């Protein structure tokens, strides 16, 4: 992997170990920046900021991240440039015209302290979680989500015009509603199926961490009636009906009130909503179980294990949860773990870590 003018890295070239890579350093030295670069290379976006200019070293105009992904089919070079003129990506040295065509070549699972908000935070966080993770697993999901977001934006803009009486053509609104229902029904159907699959992998992990005392359920919460027998055509019909019912309220509000952009994901422990009624320990166990389940679900859906990025997460977990996390990933996935020091349970459990010290954007491999 190589970086050029990314954050506080003016120049870096490193070949990481396929096992567990531990990045040690004090705060503000560049540990999380390195994980952010890997995240950017995979998903074309930072997990920390929406402002691309923040990714570019203050002395430069363009930041560049390159990496070579080793898959069962062979090696695949990836490249992304960020800066003036937006983002530019290459796969196997060939420029890609659409970012959606690039995503999926390298999959990552990120686990950071703020991921506890996945359980106890606002619904928008869980929708973003589904979009990011499911988009890596399914090109069909990413395609329909992209077109759904375009249709939603256009429909919301037109609703605002109708509210302000700058437009009066309800026929155009019907066309936009049909587009929204076409792509929205696909998004909802894939979400439902992948949530059920994620639950399948998360349940045994959660049971083991809780010593068989708790059972975890994942529930996709939608305005639509959706189950195993639901077809995309049925969901489209339901969504069209919802949009017709709400059209006057939508014009008054100037925004779309029905669709998967308002859905949620609930976590139930022994039948109780852990977001509302769970202890902090139950919320942490749920977040950990879901993150570990993602690893196996991605492998099931894509045939390849993702990279695991652990950003200072050990400090947020007690010894039991640290033990389960580190035992579960050992010899399984390439892992990047940031910490200020490797001690305690982590030092005992990680068999053969490759340790790097980071200071002011400079990487030094120990040993």
UniProtKB/TrEMBL annotation:
It comes from the Bacteria. It is found in: Cytoplasm. GO terms for cellular component: cytoplasm. One of its GO terms (biological process) is DNA synthesis involved in DNA repair. The keyword Transmembrane helix does not apply. Keywords: ATP-binding, Cytoplasm, DNA damage, DNA repair, DNA replication, DNA-binding, Nucleotide-binding, SOS response. InterPro entries: DNA-binding_RecF (IPR001238), DNA-binding_RecF_CS (IPR018078), P-loop_NTPase (IPR027417), RecF/RecN/SMC_N (IPR003395), RecF_2 (IPR042174). The keyword ATP-binding applies. Residues 2-340 form the RecF/RecN/SMC N-terminal domain. CDD domains: ABC_RecF (cd03242). Its main location: cytoplasm. GO terms for molecular function: ATP binding; single-stranded DNA binding. Pfam families: SMC_N. ATP binds at residues 25-32. The RecF protein is involved in DNA metabolism; it is required for DNA replication and normal SOS inducibility. RecF binds preferentially to single-stranded, linear DNA. It also seems to bind ATP. Belongs to the RecF family. This is DNA replication and repair protein RecF. It comes from Limosilactobacillus ingluviei. The lineage of its organism: Bacteria, Bacillati, Bacillota, Bacilli, Lactobacillales. The gene is recF.
